[in-house]
Design goal:
The chain is an alpha/beta fold and 427 residues long. Helices cover 27% and strands 26% of the residues.
Length: 427
């Protein structure tokens, strides 16, 4: 294999020029395919045997590595993981964004441990009541006793669910997913349960069968939980400290980053960048629970934060009020609609913060350019959509001035990245 592809697979060119991919293969590996799929223009090795290992192949610490679909790079040395992620980010900006020259010194920042780093893990339950994780690129359940990148309590929660399921299997079979989240403040461990339900209109949930409700009542005596679509089981909010000591409030179902040590590096980078650029007023268009906005407000900056979910707005307002910050900073709404409204109102911002979901912010990027802040900071978890959206901004008068990767997801091909742009003077 020659290098790693954006999807995390090993990549090389065959003698006839076709691209070849192999999941789990690493640069320098010599492999012998035993089953291959031929597609138009490329070949994928579905199964293969390792003849000669590459120089950065290591023995993964997790016994489920390769069977579980979570950590596709656990058999790659850590330093090589970081170097490969930096190269994937560079390649996406060159190939998709057409950035021929990039800011100097592109690196990927790591923080904390590469094991037990996740504050959240989603467990799956199949229709027979088995609890585990999904196999690579499928919904096939893999039995695991623990997750080495998950919280310390992951194995304990799996054993609890299996124990309850062995006694009340019919109730456990109604469960589809169980997300556990740990936090340093508030209830240490909480579960968020998604049940299998008959298909109805979106947001419409039929009454729970009596035996399922009784089972959930008993389970809630052992561990705090909430159930999607039900108000009966709600736990107190959890809290995570942001840089500057401001607690971020996590309500049931609210989003939090999975790697808090790296998230603090990420938020600190944005805060420091805003200070260096003398930002006074900001607009955060994908504010979530206030991950960036709360830390920026704590420095004395003023701003406006937009979030589409009511849970995110409520969480941020609670956190702001508790910290003595203006809770009316946060408003609920669609990022594009709110950006256009702000533009029509001729609002002026020194900085716009963009932290969109994986699909990116194609239309919002154009609207932001029309809003014309002095600076834009773009946080993204997908290099391809980041490259596309940066190209949109640079096409509307912005210049890419800083790019940094963050290893939010060790042992996987995924990474978080931050890009700073500044508006060029009009000619």
């Amino acid at each position: 294999m020659r290098r790693l592809s954006p999807g995390g697979d090993g990549f090389c060119r065959l003698p006839d020029g076709r691209a070849a991919f192999a999941r789990g293969a690493l640069p320098g590996d010599e492999i012998v395919p035993t089953e291959a799929e031929e597609r138009k223009g490329y070949v994928r090795a579905v199964r293969w045997q390792l003849r000669t290992p590459g120089p950065n192949r290591v023995t993964p610490p997790c016994p489920a590595a390769g069977r579980c679909g979570g950590c596709d790079w656990m058999h790659l040395a850590r330093a090589a993981q970081l170097a490969a992620k930096a190269e994937l980010l560079r390649e996406a900006l060159r190939r998709i964004g057409h950035f021929e020259s990039l800011p100097n010194g592109l690196t990927v920042t790591a923080a904390g441990s590469d094991l037990r780093y996740r504050s959240r893990v989603r467990l799956h339950v199949d229709r027979s009541g088995r609890v585990g994780l999904f196999a690579p690129r499928s919904h096939r359940l893999v039995d695991v006793d623990d997750c080495l990148v998950g919280p310390e309590v992951t194995g304990e929660v799996i054993r609890l669910l299996r124990d309850v399921g062995s006694r009340e299997s019919s109730a456990l079979r109604r469960v589809e997913t169980v997300e556990l989240r740990v936090a340093p403040q508030g209830p240490k461990v909480v579960l968020r349960i998604h049940l299998r339900r008959p298909r109805r209109a979106p947001g419409v949930h039929p009454p729970l069968p009596r035996e399922v409700a009784a089972w959930l009542d008993r389970l809630s005596l052992s561990i705090p939980l909430s159930v999607v679509g039900e108000d009966r089981w709600e736990h107190a909010e959890q809290r995570f400290d942001l840089p500057g000591g401001i607690p971020l409030v996590a309500l049931p179902g609210g989003f939090t980053q999975i790697n808090w040590a790296v998230n603090c590096e990420l938020v600190g980078s944005v805060v420091n960048g805003a200070r260096q650029r003398n930002v006074s007023r900001f607009c955060d268009l994908y504010a979530g629970a206030g991950n960036f906005s709360l830390a920026l407000l704590a420095t004395g900056m003023s701003g406006l934060a937009v979030e589409v979910t009511s849970a995110g707005v409520k969480s941020a307002a609670i956190a702001a009020q508790a910290a003595g910050l203006p809770p009316d900073t946060f408003r609920q709404g669609d990022a594009l609609e709110q950006c256009e409204r702000l533009r029509r109102a001729r609002e002026v911002f020194d900085l716009v913060v963009l932290d969109p979901p994986r699909r990116g912010a194609r239309e919002v990027a154009t609207s932001v350019a029309r809003l014309a802040p002095r600076h834009v900071v773009f946080c993204a978890c997908d290099p391809a959509t980041l490259a596309r959206d940066l190209m949109t901004l640079t096409g509307h008068g912005y210049q890419l001035e800083q790019l940094q990767g963050f290893d939010m997801f060790p042992h996987t091909h995924h990474l978080e990245a931050i890009a700073w742009l500044r508006r060029l003077p009009r000619q």
